[in-house]
From TrEMBL:
Species name: Bradyrhizobium macuxiense
GO BP annotations, alphabetical order: protein maturation
Gene3D superfamilies cross-referenced by the UniProt entry: 2.30.30.140
Alphabetical list of InterPro entries matching this protein: Hydrogenase_HupF/HypC
GO MF term list: carbon dioxide binding; iron ion binding
Name under which the protein is recorded: Hydrogenase
Family in the record: Belongs to the HupF/HypC family.
């Protein structure tokens, strides 16, 4: 399984960008995107930015990753998934 990271572009030359997530900074390919601006949030898979993210979507992904990290360490992770507790999962329209 491949996990995508929500990263922020801090520098770019149009072909690749220096991005950061937490304390990590790395260069990723941005050739699949149309000139993403500095400060843009992107979803990165295997050092390739695959799409732009809005701030809310990036935050939700970050919370899910933090929750996964907490669960793997044996800590309580309910706070990271508060929007899921008490509701039934909804299938996307194309799967209904």
């Amino acid at each position: 399984m491949c996990v995508g990271l929500p990263m922020t572009i801090i520098e770019t030359d149009g072909m690749r960008a220096q991005c950061e997530y937490g304390n990590e900074t790395r260069f990723v390919s941005v050739i699949l995107l149309s000139k993403p601006p500095i400060g843009a949030k992107v979803l990165v898979h295997i050092d390739t930015a695959v799409r732009l993210l809005d701030d809310d979507e990036a935050r939700l992904i970050e919370q899910a990753l933090d929750g996964l990290d907490a669960a793997l360490k044996g800590h309580d992770c309910d706070q990271f998934f508060a929007d899921l507790i008490g509701r039934e999962p909804q299938l996307p329209g194309h799967l209904r």
